[in-house]
């Protein structure tokens, strides 16, 4: 169930007592690792940072963070001054990498107890983002409604849902949609669906403060999740998606208690939803069936919009 990619620290990683489905040893371009593992199911990846070419350049890790789920990756740091400096660690945290360590004991701890932002917040140097804190206060004073949508299960449909929401909402509202740190919006060929980097979102929201509603495809951006007024969390309730999620993090549902949880692409009955709520200890905000993205009007989407309080 696990992947090990080693280089300088191969001997240390060979001592790990975990099930391994794939081992690689050597030095690799980040694009090669992404192409091999972007659609490859694994429980954890133990990645020796020295196996990444040009790893001292933080943009190399940023590429990895955009393409792969970093909650599943444990980064084994080396002893170089650059990659263990407070500034470098802070940059790792800024791009959503929380699971990093320098020894075998740390790997095994993170394997069983993955970090959240709270666990590494003390290493995060906030001085460079003071401007965004000011911008956030300004955003909160504007009339624009900023709604974020984030996948909980992998490929739960946030990007397509935003596209369909935008089409339906723009009949009554002025709408913009932003996608953070990815380029999938390009395939919709809509000039008002824009792909940007995480650090650009605050200024974009302020610049477009006369827009009624801004939809944000959050992806893995902690900054975007902080900037939006509310976040909708999507769970695709298929057996395989839920079991994969639970295998990765048995306590995953606790994070979304009291959040707006939507079952997306769902074929569950009302009884099934009640059973899901009981088992997960979550309250489901809406049960969204599979939608036709070519339809001009989706009744279920209209019901969802009304429940959000956005119907005119």
Core attributes:
312 residues, alpha/beta, Rossmann fold, 2 domains, five-stranded parallel sheet, globular
Characterization of this structure:
- By secondary structure, the chain is of the alpha/beta class.
- It folds into two domains: 124 residues, Rossmann fold (3-Layer(aba) Sandwich), CATH 3.40.50; 178 residues, P-loop containing nucleotide triphosphate hydrolases (Rossmann fold, 3-Layer(aba) Sandwich), CATH 3.40.50.
- Helices cover 36% and strands 19% of the residues.
- The chain has 13 helices and twelve strands.
- The strands form two sheets. The protein has a seven-stranded parallel beta sheet.
- Helix 1 links the parallel strand 1 and strand 2.
- The longest helix is centred in the middle third of the chain and has 12 residues.
- It is globular, with a radius of gyration of 20 Å.
- The termini are far apart.
**What is the β-strand count?**
12
Q: Can you tell me the overall shape?
A: globular
Query: What percent of residues are in strands?
Result: 15-25%
Describe the largest sheet: 7 strands, parallel
Rg value: 20 Å
CATH class wording of the largest domain: Alpha Beta
Structural class, from helix and strand content? alpha/beta
Q: Work out the count of structural domains.
A: 2
How many DSSP helices? 13
How are the strands of the largest sheet arranged?
8-7-9-6-10-11-12
Poorly predicted sequence stretches spanning 5 or more consecutive residues: 127-141
- Average pLDDT, rounded to a whole number, is 88
CATH H level, superfamily name of the largest domain: P-loop containing nucleotide triphosphate hydrolases
């Amino acid at each position: 169930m696990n992947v090990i990619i080693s280089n300088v620290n191969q001997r240390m990683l060979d001592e790990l007592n975990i099930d391994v489905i794939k081992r690689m040893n050597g030095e690799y371009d980040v694009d090669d690792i992404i192409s091999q593992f972007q659609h490859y199911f694994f429980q954890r990846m133990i990645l020796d940072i020295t196996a990444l070419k040009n790893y001292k350049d933080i943009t190399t890790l940023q590429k990895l963070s955009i393409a792969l789920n970093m909650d599943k990756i444990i980064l084994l740091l080396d002893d170089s001054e650059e990659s263990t400096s407070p500034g470098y660690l802070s940059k790792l945290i800024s791009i959503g990498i929380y699971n990093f360590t320098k020894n075998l004991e740390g790997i095994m701890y993170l394997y069983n107890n993955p970090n959240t932002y709270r666990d590494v917040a003390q290493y995060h140097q906030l001085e460079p983002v003071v401007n965004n804190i000011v911008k956030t206060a300004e955003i909160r004073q504007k009339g624009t409604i900023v709604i974020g949508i984030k996948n909980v299960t992998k490929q739960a449909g946030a990007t397509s849902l935003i596209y369909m929401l935008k089409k339906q909402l723009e009949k009554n509202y002025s709408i913009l949609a932003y996608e953070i740190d990815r380029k999938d919006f390009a395939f919709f060929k809509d000039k008002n669906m824009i792909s940007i980097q995480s650090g650009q979102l605050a200024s974009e929201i302020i610049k477009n403060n006369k827009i009624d509603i801004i939809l944000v495809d959050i992806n893995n951006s902690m900054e975007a999740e902080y900037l939006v007024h509310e976040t909708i969390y999507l769970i695709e309730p298929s057996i395989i998606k839920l079991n994969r999620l639970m295998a990765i993090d048995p306590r995953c549902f606790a994070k979304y208690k009291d959040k707006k949880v939507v079952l997306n692409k769902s074929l569950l009955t009302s009884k099934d939803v009640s059973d899901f709520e009981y088992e997960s200890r979550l309250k489901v905000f809406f049960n969204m069936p599979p939608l036709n993205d070519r339809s001009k009007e989706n009744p279920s989407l209209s019901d969802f919009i009304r429940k959000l309080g956005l119907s005119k």
